[in-house]
Amino acid sequence: MQFFQGKLKSVYRYNALMLLSICFLTNVAAQDVVMSQFYSAPLYLNPAMSGIAYGPRFTVNYRNQWPGMGSGFNGGYTTYMGAFDMHIDKIRSGIGLLVVADQMMNNIFGNYYVTASFAPQIKFNRSIAMKIGVAGTYIHRRLNWSNLQFSDMINPYSGFFDANGNPNATGEPTPSRLSLNRGDLSAGFVIFTRKLYFGFAVNNFIMNKENFSDAVEARTPMRFTAHFGGSFPLKTKYSYKRNIYLSPNVLIANQGRNLQVNAGLLAGIEMIYFGAQFRYVINNPESFIMIVGVKKGKFRVGYSYDFPVSKLVNKTGGAHELTFTFNIAGDDNSLENKNNRGYLACPTILNF
Questions:
Q1: Residue 337 confidence (pLDDT) above 50
Q2: Structure pTM?
Q3: Would you say 284 and 310 are in contact if contact means Cβ atoms under 8 Å apart?
């Protein structure tokens, strides 16, 4: 009986996860992931960011959200990103390539896409410039139906598997499609001075049907993102021989009926930076985010953890996020580098 009760608890847990999956797959308000260190995922944030740090630049991002909702370290929602971007002097434009893999509940559901972006730049005067970006995306989504476990699969003596270790049969009908392929478009702009920036981007222009089952019609709504902030050096008697700066940053993302605001402040002292953010989702304070990182020359590594403050505080396990950047240009950027002194420098935070 104790064994059966343990398996029953497992059923409840898997059913809860399955419901989350079904809600994601069929809900017309399916959501894209929003990174806590959004400034460290520039091409995902806004295609206009392509080439803004001159480069060539390589970025890698990993996010593990809600690990407590499933079994294993990747039991919740995991996101992997890899990107390359650079500025091309001859055409005064940036180019970028972004690869993203979203996986849910130990890869029961996978969302994979590749994005190519192009971002020309316009310099208005000596103190302000703008980049306009467009991007095309190929998307592949896959449902690993065989990895799902249903309540009618449980055997009171052997659980979900038979004596030979094979999964028990289920009466649940298999969806008519287990994978989807489609294209998409996005666009955005970013206006900046040496200390301030403001950007706006629109993703998911093409809202195609994304049905795994003919009985349900689902579409991923457009995502609207505004982001702004800056980087300000501090001049005090303690910073005379040290590079000390403050960098406030705000992100506002709206997709379907979901509105999210991230606001926070970073402080940098020489090669170390640290700070905090607060994430607010509609009428629900969602998480408090702590950030720490190291930036030295061409390299930067950052880590953040989302501390839940909502009603799910004891259930989700928060979110871990790790970022890595390698910029061959070092501290150069697309609007002022050692080969192009006529351009305008962007804020330090965008040069990450």
A1: yes
A2: 0.84
A3: yes
